[in-house]
Amino acid sequence: MVPSYSPFGEIASAVTTWPGPAWLSEARTAAIGRFNAAGLPSTKLEAWRTTPLPNLGTDSFVADAISVAGSDPEGLVGAFTAQDAVTMVFVDGFHSATLSSPESAWPKGVRISPVSRILETTPDELRPSIEGTSGSHGTLWDLNTAAFRDGAFLEVEDFSQVEAEVRIIVIASSTDRPAARHLRNFIRLGRDASLRVLVAVIGQSSARGFTNQQTTIELHDRSRLDLVRVHESPIGAPHFDTATIAVGPHAVFNDTLLQTGASWTRSEIVVALKGDRGSADLGGVFVARGTQVSDIHTVVSHAAPGVTSRQNYRGLAADEGRGVFHGQIKVEADARGADATQGNKNMLLSKRAQVHSTPSLEILTDDVKCKHGSATGQIDPAQLFYLRSRGIDLQEATLILTRAFAGEILSRLTGADTRSVVEARIAPSLEQLGVAA
Amino acid sequence: MLRITDLHANAGDKPILKGLTLNVNGGEVHAIMGPNGSGKSTLAHVLAGRPGYTVTGGEVLYKSSPLFDMAPEIRAREGVFLAYQYPVELPGVSNLYFLRSALNAIRRHRGEPDMDAMDFLTIAKEKAKLVDLDEALVKRNVNEGFSGGEKKRNEIFQMAVLEPSLAILDETDSGLDIDALRIVANGVNKLRSEDRAMIVVTHYQRLLEYIVPDFVHVLIDGKIALSGGKELALELESKGYEWLEKEPAKAS
C-alpha cells in the first residue's frame, strides 16, 4: 500500500530539526498549523478570486539545498553586476557566497548578511519582525514563516546614506527536481538613512518548483528606500511575493515593480504609512503573454496625519495572457489631510487576453484627498496607423507603442545603470508581444 | 506619378467617392477643393491606406503599380506621404526616434543602410529650420502637448525629412492663424521640386494664395465636378460651391 503523503506533516517535522531558538520553533510550528488548517489559497477567498493558484509542480514544501549542477547561475548573475553595486545572490532559496560580491566590497553604513547567518548567530533580532507579522498575511506568508531558511538582511545605520546599490538576485535553478524556494528578507533603515535596492527574481528557463519570497521593510524617521523589483521567474516556476512596508514619520518608500514574464507571478505590496507625513510612491508594469498570469495586489494604509501615497500601475496582456491589478486604499480616521492617488492603465493586445482591474477604497475620514482611475483598452488604431503611414511596419509600430506605454513606468528609474539593466530585462518580453490580427 | 481612374470608395458603409478620375504628374501641385462631405479627406485617407475605408471600384496606379496592393507602410516607403489634418499624439515616443525609425524603414526598403542617431540629428536640425520648428519640439514626444500650429509644422517637418515623391496635404490650413499658415506654406514651397508631386486638399482658397497650385479640382459628391488653373480657386472664393452642386460635371 502506498503511504499517504502529507507535505504539511513533512514540513512540520523538518521544522523541529532546524537550529534556532525556542521562540522561532514555536513561531514556525504555529505557522504550519495555520497553513495546515487553511490550506493553499483558493478562489473562494476574495483576494484570490481572479487568480487561481497554479500547479506548484511539487509535493514537497521543504526548502532544501539542491545541487546546481548543469545550470549556469554565473551567467544569470552577470547581467546584474556593476561597478557601483554590490550583489547578494540566492540560488534555490539559499545564499551563495561564491556568486555574491565579496564582503570586502560591501559598502559602509549598512549591515549586509544572509539571513541564514543571522539565524545561527543573533536570531533574536529577527524576533519582533517575525512575531509581529505572524498570522496577518495569509497562508503563503505562514508557509514561508514555517519554511524559510535564508534571505537578505539589510540594516542601514542612522544617518547613513548608502551610495552603492544593493542587488539581491534570486535564482530558480533546480531543473532536476522541483524546488520549494522560501526566502525571507529583512530590510531596516534607521533614521535619516537612505538605500537603493534592486531585487531580481530570475531563473533557468527550465527551472522547476516555485518561489515564495516574503519581505519585511521598516523605514524609520526621514529615511528613504528606493526599491526596484524585477519579477521574471521562469515558465514552470511560479513566484509569489509579498512585501510589507512600515513607513515612519517623513520617511519615503519608492517602489518600482516589473513583472516581465513568468508562468505565474503574484506580487502583494502592503504599505502602512504609520508616521506623520510619511509617503509611498508605487509604480509598476506587467507584461503577460502566452498563457502567463501576472497579478499585482496593493494595500496602502494611511494611518497618520499628512501622509501621501501615489500608485501608478500599467499592464500589457497579449495572446492568452492574464493580468490582475487589485489596488486598495485605506484611510484611517486619524489620517487627517491624507492624500492618495491610484492609477491603473492596461493595454490588451489580443482578443483572448484579459485584465482584471479592481480599485478599492476604504475611507474613514472626510479630511482626505483621494483620486483613482482605471482604464483598459486596446492599442490605439489611430496611433498604429500614424506610424504605419510613415513607413513603419505593424510589428515595429506595435513595439514602439508598447515600449512607450511601459516607458512611463521605466521613466521612474533615475539611476542610469539601474534603468539600463531593467530595460534589458523587459525588452525581450515586449519584443515577443504579438498582436492578433 | 499617380493615375486615379473611376475611383469608388466607402467610408464605413457609406459611398463617398463615386467615380473620381485624376492624373498627377511629377512636379505638379494639384489642389482639391470642395464643400464639406464631398469626399476630400476620404480621398486623402484612401490613398494613404487608412483602415475604415473600402475601395469598391476603379483603379489607382502609383508609379505604374496598383496602389491598393500595397500595405500602408509599403506605400509610405514607396514615397507616399500624408500630412494629417489631425496629427496624432504619441505619448512616450520621441519625435526623433519616431522619425529615424520611419526614415530607416524607407532606407532599408531602398536597400540603403540605416542612418545612425548622430547623422540623423544633424539632418533633423537642418530640416526643422524649414518650418521654424523649435529644436525642443523636435526632441519632444510626437505631437504631445503641441499647439495646433506646432502639430501642422511637425507634419511638414516630417515631410521634409522623409522626402516623399507624392505628398498629400489634408486640410493643412485648418486651425492655423495667418502667421502659422505662412510658415507652413513656406515650408511646403521649399519642398516643391521636379520629381515631387503634391495634392493639397483644402476647403478654403486662403492656403492657395501661399501654395500656388498648377491645377485646381472641385470635388462635388465624390466626383470631380470642375477642373481648372489657379484662378479657379479665386472664382470659388467669390461664388462658393453651391452653383456647381447644381450643374453637371464638365471636363477640364
Give a brief outline of the structure:
Chain A has 9 helices and 19 strands. Chain A is α/β, with parallel strands linked by helices. In chain B, helix 4 crosses helix 6.
Write the layout of secondary structure elements.
The complex is a heterodimer of chains A (437) and B (252).
Chain A lengths: L6 H11 L4 H17 L34 H6 L6 E7 L2 E2 L14 E5 H7 L5 H7 L5 H9 L4 E5 L8 E8 L6 E11 L4 E10 L5 E11 L4 E8 L7 E9 L4 E8 L4 E10 L5 E10 L4 E10 L5 E10 L4 E10 L6 E11 L5 E10 L4 E11 L2 H8 L5 H17 L5 H16 L6
Parallel strand pairs in A: 1-5, 4-6, 5-7, 6-8, 7-9, 8-10, 9-11, 10-12, 11-13, 12-14, 13-15, 14-16, 15-17, 16-18, 17-19
Antiparallel strand pairs in A: 1-2, 3-4
Chain B lengths: L1 E10 L2 E11 L4 E5 L6 H9 L4 E10 L2 E2 L5 H6 L2 E4 L6 E5 H15 L7 H14 L4 H5 L1 E2 L5 H15 L3 E5 L7 H13 L6 E5 L4 H5 L4 E6 L2 E6 L2 H9 L2 H5 L6
Helix pairs in contact in B: 4-6, 6-7
Please describe what this structure looks like.
The complex is a heterodimer of chains A (437) and B (252). With 437 residues, chain A is an alpha/beta fold. Chain A has one domain. Chain A contains nine helices and 19 strands. Chain A has helices at 7-17, 22-38, 73-78, 115-121, 127-133, 139-147, 381-388, 394-410, 416-431, and strands spanning 85-91, 94-95, 110-114, 152-156, 165-172, 179-189, 194-203, 209-219, 224-231, 239-247, 252-259, 264-273, 279-288, 293-302, 308-317, 322-331, 338-348, 354-363, 368-378. A ten-stranded mixed sheet of chain A has the order 2-1-5-7-9-11-13-15-17-19. A nine-stranded mixed sheet of chain A has the order 3-4-6-8-10-12-14-16-18. The longest helix of chain A has 17 residues, at 22-38. The model of chain A is unreliable at 1-6 (pLDDT under 50). The model of chain B has no long low-confidence stretch (mean pLDDT 93). In chain B, the strands form three sheets. In chain B, strands 6-9-10-3-11-12 form a six-stranded mixed sheet, with helices on both faces. Chain B has helices at residues 40-48, 72-77, 95-109, 117-130, 135-139, 148-162, 178-190, 206-210, 231-239, 242-246, and strands at 2-11, 14-24, 29-33, 53-62, 65-66, 80-83, 90-94, 141-142, 166-170, 197-201, 215-220, 223-228. Chain B has a single domain (2-246), classed as 3-Layer(aba) Sandwich (Rossmann fold), CATH 3.40.50.300. Chain B is an alpha/beta fold and 252 residues long. In chain B, strand 9, helix 7 (178-190) and strand 10 form a beta-alpha-beta unit. Chain B is 38% helix and 28% strand.
